[in-house]
Structures are given as structure tokens and as C-alpha cells.
Amino acid sequence: MKLFCVFIVFIFNFSSNLIADDIFFYLDSAYKNNPKLNSERKNLEAIKQNLNISRSEFLPSISLSSERSDTQNTSSSNQAGSSLPDTSRNKTTNTFSIDQKIFDGFQNINNFKKSKLETEKAKTNLKKVEQEIILESVYAFYDLLYKKKNKEFNNKNVSLFERQVESDGSRMQKGEITLTDLAQSESSLAEAKAKFISAKTELSNAEADFERIIRTVPPKNISQKLNLKLNLPNNRNEVLKLSEQNHPKLIVAKLNYEISIRNFSIEKAKFSPSASINYSKVDNDDFSSTINKIEQEVVTGKVSWPIVKGGRNYASIKKSRFKKEQSKLIMQDAINEVKTNAINAWSVYESSEGILKATEAQLEAAEIANEGITLEYDSGSTRTTLDVIQSRSLLLSARISNAKARRDFIISQFKLLSSVGNLSLNYIKKSNN
């Protein structure tokens, strides 16, 4: 039984580590559970119903109605003044009606095409929100990793200065260093503790953001080796080409312009004549005092042509024309914005890679310098307490800068994918298969 319990604990810990190391687990969680993303999915389902609504305008409408009236005549008299007997009638009317539009100036056709465009727009908006949530989730994940490292580095720094203060206290009693040297160490320890408290606060904020975006509890441990393979564009020209083809914001702007054209056509169609046909069958029981029952079948054709509606139709056309021109200008602005953002994303990606290499060299040099200065100080050479403090501060700064550069380099890759419209969960998974 004891061995079984040990085995269960081992399996649980192993599974936990797998989950903590697997960013896809957290991306899946955000993809399925993020309320903003789920809200956009519901919006798409609602927009899809516009297709059915606009399609129904091409089909006949059928209605059934029934009406009953009870009439009683009392205290009646004829022309001579003689009283007439009381009478009562129970009249029932049943109506079956079919209406079919024949022509409406192509309003139905334009409404249907508009509904298809609105559905495509909703799908593209969903893709846009998916990209935003994936990018936020990736940032939350790698920022949590960075903040954990930041806390770890600052915690080690506090421990180092605590040992140094203890060591310097002993050395001052022996006369090897002065009270000033000890005060410098104590001051650096206080500063290290303040930075550690700040790092803990930043980590708490990162954990809160992680849970808000990804909708799951942050992992306690994250592997230091979390390098994803991403199929990135090879050069700036490829970035521009892909962004023009795939970026959701640009596609939405183009769809909005197409929708505005349809709205303009719908408003113009309201000036056109319209035609419809109606068939109705009416059954009347107790139709009149002389007719007990009657059935009527009526076929009615109707043609109408609006001429003037107090200027409302002309104003509607002008309004839709202005809206179309506005959508065209917005589309042109979106083209420029997407192009600029794509170029910026490529530049940030290239620069962040250079910064990462520079911080790696900085960290390596800082580690060598700190190790040498610490050994020289401990051996009683000419190195001062201030030299040790400065070397440790530089080492801490180098470690944090390198960890931040790693985070920024990874995020820059995802932002580059977002700028060309290729940031999706399936795309990331295919790149890593």
C-alpha cells in the first residue's frame, strides 16, 4: 500500500510538471474559457441567423386567422312602431392567406449579399479576437516566467548580502574593515530587501493577470527551457505581403466597405417599383341574415412605386453614400496602419534578437567579474566592500536584463505572427509538430 501511494504521488508530480512545462495546455485553456473570446463566438452564431432572415424574404409567407363575433339584437321595432322579436347571430370567419413578393427593386438580393458579408466580417472579428487572446496569453505565460526569475534573482541577492553583512561584522571586529564598510553592506542589504519586496508584488500581479486571461491557476514551477518553434516570415517584404493578405483588421475594413456598398444599393432600390401577389381563402359561417355560409377565394396583384416620402428617401440615399465614402477612407487608413504595424513588428523582432545576444554577453562578463572580485575581497586584497557591492548590483542587473530580453524576444515573434495575421493555435501547433 505504501509503494502504491508513493507511485501515485510520483505520477501526480510528473503530470504536474508536464502541465507546467506545456504552454499549449494554457493556450488551450484560454482558447476555450476566455469570456471575451466566447462572447465573440456567440456573436458569430447570432450574425449567422441574418442569412436565414434575409433568405426568408424570397419565400412566400403563409398565415391563418380566425375571427368570431356574437351579435344580439334586442328592443327592435319596425317602421310602424311594432316590436320585433329579439335575434342573435354567431359569425365565424376563417382566413387562409399566402403572400409572395415578385419584385422589390433588388432589395432582397442586396440584403442577402449584405448578410453574407456580415457573416464573413463576424468570422474575421472572431479571428482577430483569437489573435488578441493568444497574444495576451503568451505574454501572461512568459511574463510570469520572467517575474518568477526576477523574484528568484532578488531573493538570492538578499541572501548574499545577509551573508556579507554577517561576514563584514566579524571582519570589522578583527579590524580588517571599517564601520563605513559595514554600513555600506547593511545599506545594500536594505536595498536588496526592498527590491525583493517589489519583485514579489510584480509576481503577484503577473499571477493575477495569468489567471484572468488564461482562466486557470498559474503553475508553481515553469521549466527554463520553453523555446517554441514558429514559422516566421523570412524578410520584410514577406511580412508586408502576408499582412496585406491575412491581417484581420484590414479584412474587416474591406468587408465594411463592401457592406456600405450594399447599403447604398438597398437605399437606391427603395425608389424602384415593387410588386407582390396575394392569394386568400375566406370561410364565413352565418355570413348574413339571408346567407348562412359563404366561401371566397381572392387573388390580388399589387404594384406600388414610391415617389416622395417627404424627402426621407432622398436623405437616406445621401446618408448611405456618405457612409460608403467614410468606409472607403477607413479602409485606406487600415491599409496604412497594418503596413506600419507589420514593419514595426519586424523591426522589433530583429532588434530584440540583438538585445538578447548583448545581454547574454553582459551576463557572462558580469558573472566572471563578480566571481573574481568576490574572491579577491574574501582573500583580503585591495578590493573594497564598495567593489563587491557594485559587482553584485551589476550581476543582478545583468541577470534581470537577460531574463527580460528572453521574454521580449519570444513575445516579439508572436507579435510578428499577429502582424501578418498568422497567429492561431493551429498554426503554432503545426509549427511545433
List the helices and strands and how they pair.
Layout: H1 2-21, H2 23-33, H3 35-56, E1 61-73, E2 76-77, E3 83-84, E4 87-103, H4 107-173, H5 179-214, H6 236-246, H7 248-269, E5 274-285, E6 293-304, H8 312-378, H9 385-419, H10 425-431
Helix pairs in contact: 2-4, 3-4, 4-5, 4-7, 4-9, 6-8, 7-8, 8-9
Notes on the protein architecture:
The protein has about 425 residues and is of the alpha+beta class. It has a single domain, classed as Up-down Bundle (Outer membrane efflux proteins (OEP)), CATH 1.20.1600.10. It is built from 10 helices and 6 strands, in the order H-H-H-E-E-E-E-H-H-H-H-E-E-H-H-H. It has helices at about 1-20, 25-35, 35-55, 105-175, 180-215, 235-245, 250-270, 310-380, 385-420, 425-430, and strands at about 60-75, 75, 85, 85-105, 275-285, 295-305. A 4-stranded antiparallel β-sheet has the order 1-4-5-6, with no helix packed on it. A two-stranded antiparallel sheet has the order 2-3. A hairpin with a 7-residue loop joins strand 5 and strand 6. Helix 3 runs antiparallel to helix 4 and helix 8 (about 310-380) packs antiparallel against helix 9 (about 385-420). The longest helix is centred in the N-terminal third of the chain and has 67 residues, at about 105-175. It starts with a helix and ends with a helix. The model is unreliable at about 1-20 (pLDDT under 50).
